[in-house]
């Protein structure tokens, strides 16, 4: 399998979006901070008819001028599917293969791209960026326990990898595969949420996702037989997902993996694209907190919690 190595690439704050559609070409100012947001009502139904004036964006306590707004998120999308193949997931891998293939077939549009990574004691790129569901399905066929052959190059620290390197996989997917892409960027993470031996911390993985402008959707999939009466939690998944504008889905008797993939697909196609020029022009590498509110206080906005003001 192809190996990836960490690259030293300058962090770019602004997202330059340029894409051609059948009738028009839209360009977004490179100085804009780009945010994707989903909005739900009290029943959890997506609200898709809001206008620009319905939104207020606040950065570090200061109201910002919303420069760009789109009700339809038809931007090109890059999806990274990260699948846990550690020992605790052994009995779930075949289900993940089938559901993942169906997901790629239904979600990818003409200008979308996707890649596939498995992670256990190592992280392995099973399929690089492609628009082909066939190639991605073939990559899914390569899912195997522990992913012990091949893998990524060294992570930022020199510690030896052991166990389940979930944070490393997120970090590497964001830093190596997504940071250089434009449009919407999504990490879909299938795991029981346990990490043993990653070289980067949870916060470093979240920071990498922020710097790549990537949303993390976590699918909490647990085989109770692997843990007995407990010892697992989705707390770390919630932290990573909610910080980046995503959320956690649970596979259970009421929600199959196929059902959850369908929910994620609907959510990714129900986002508002917002852009603003920060009133703080400093490019000092600091983290800026973002709050997004709607005029209707009964609505719930789901978006990333902030961004890093990357140095020029």
Strand segment count:
16
What is the mean pLDDT? 86
**Can you name the CATH architecture of the largest domain?**
3-Layer(aba) Sandwich
CATH class of the largest domain: Alpha Beta
End-to-end C-alpha gap: 35 Å
Sum up the overall morphology in one term.
globular
CATH topology of the largest domain: Rossmann fold
Total number of helices: 6
SSE run? EEEEEEEHEEHHEHEHEHEEEE
Indicate the structural class.
alpha/beta
Tell me the strand percentage band.
Answer: 25-35%
Rg: 19 Å
Task: Lay out the secondary structure.
Elements lengths: L17 E3 L4 E3 L5 E8 L14 E5 L2 E2 L2 E5 L6 E8 L8 H15 L5 E7 L3 E8 L2 H9 L24 H13 L5 E8 L10 H10 L2 E7 L14 H10 L3 E3 L6 H12 L3 E5 L10 E8 L5 E3 L3 E3 L4
Parallel strand pairs: 7-8, 7-10, 10-11, 11-12
Antiparallel strand pairs: 1-2, 3-13, 3-15, 4-5, 4-14, 6-13, 8-9, 14-16
Helix pairs in contact: 1-2, 1-6, 3-4, 4-5
């Amino acid at each position: 399998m192809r190996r990836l190595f960490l690259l030293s690439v300058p962090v770019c704050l602004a997202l330059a979006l340029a894409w051609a559609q059948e009738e028009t070409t839209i360009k977004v100012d490179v100085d804009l901070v780009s945010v994707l947001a989903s909005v739900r009502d009290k029943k959890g139904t997506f609200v898709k008819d809001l206008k620009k004036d319905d939104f207020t964006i606040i950065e570090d306590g200061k109201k910002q001028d919303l420069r760009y707004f789109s009700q339809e998120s038809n931007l090109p999308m890059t999806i990274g599917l990260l699948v846990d193949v550690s020992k605790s997931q052994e009995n779930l891998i075949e289900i993940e293969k089938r559901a993942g293939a169906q997901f790629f077939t239904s979600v990818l549009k003409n200008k979308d791209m996707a890649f596939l990574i498995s992670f256990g004691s190592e992280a392995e790129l099973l399929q690089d960026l492609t628009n082909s569901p066939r190639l991605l399905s073939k990559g899914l066929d390569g899912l195997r326990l522990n992913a012990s052959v091949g893998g990524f190059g060294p992570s930022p620290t020199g510690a030896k990898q052991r166990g389940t390197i979930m944070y490393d996989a997120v970090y590497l997917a964001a830093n190596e595969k997504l940071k250089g892409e434009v449009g919407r960027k999504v990490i879909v993470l299938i795991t029981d949420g346990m990490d043993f031996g990653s070289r980067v911390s949870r916060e470093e993985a979240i920071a990498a996702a922020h710097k790549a402008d990537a949303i993390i959707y976590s699918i909490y999939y647990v085989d109770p037989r692997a843990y007995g009466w407990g010892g697992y939690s989705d707390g770390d998944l919630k932290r990573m997902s909610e910080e980046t504008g995503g959320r956690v889905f649970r596979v259970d008797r009421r929600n199959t993996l196929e059902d959850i993939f369908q929910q994620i697909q609907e959510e990714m196609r129900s986002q508002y694209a917002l852009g603003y020029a920060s009133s703080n022009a400093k490019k000092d590498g600091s983290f800026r907190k973002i709050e997004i509110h709607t005029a209707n206080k009964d609505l719930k906005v789901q978006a990333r919690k902030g961004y890093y003001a990357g140095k020029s």
